[in-house]
Amino acid sequence: MGYFTTFNDKGGKPRFNLKAGNHQIILASEGYESTKARNNGIKSVQKNSQVEARFEKKVSKKGDPYFVLKAANGEAIGKSEMYSSTSARAKGIASVMKNGSSTVIKEA
């Protein structure tokens, strides 16, 4: 089962990553203004990652597929890595759906 890691970025903003059971990052958050806001972001992933329609499939300027997980209000919660193909992106979405409901939170 996957888990969340929490940390502060170089600018001191609280962030989190969702990692799969193999310890690979499958979803990364943006920086939050407070630890409480970051923790609410994790709760939002736990809820919204179970709804396939909340995954927005995108393609970077370089042509690499990726996805953004969005809350019900349309706000971005987290972003995936860049994938080599749309099938790899689909596997990434499936992994977030599988692991996103995890309640395990570790400090990085």
Structure characterization notes:
The protein is of the alpha+beta class and 108 residues long. It has one domain (3-107): PH-domain like. 26% of the residues lie in helices and 32% in strands. The protein has two helices and seven strands, in the order βββαβββαβ. It has helices at residues 35-48, 86-99, and strands at residues 3-8, 14-19, 25-29, 55-59, 65-70, 76-79, 105-107. The protein has a seven-stranded mixed beta sheet. Strand 5 and strand 6 form a beta hairpin. The longest helix is centred in the middle third of the chain and has 14 residues, at 35-48. It is globular and about 35 Å long. The model has no long low-confidence stretch (mean pLDDT 97).
CATH topology: PH-domain like
The CATH architecture is Roll
How many helices?
Answer: 2
From the spread of the alpha carbons, the general shape counts as globular
Spatial order of the strands in the main sheet? 4-5-6-3-2-1-7
Number of strands: 7
Helix content: 25-40%
Describe the structure using short key phrases.
single chain, 108 residues, alpha+beta, PH-domain like, 7-stranded mixed sheet, 2 helices, 7 strands, 26% helix, 32% strand, globular
Sequence-ordered SSE layout with sheet pairings:
Blueprint: E1 3-8, E2 14-19, E3 25-29, H1 35-48, E4 55-59, E5 65-70, E6 76-79, H2 86-99, E7 105-107
Parallel strand pairs: 1-7
Antiparallel strand pairs: 1-2, 2-3, 3-6, 4-5, 5-6
Brief digest:
This protein is of the alpha+beta class.
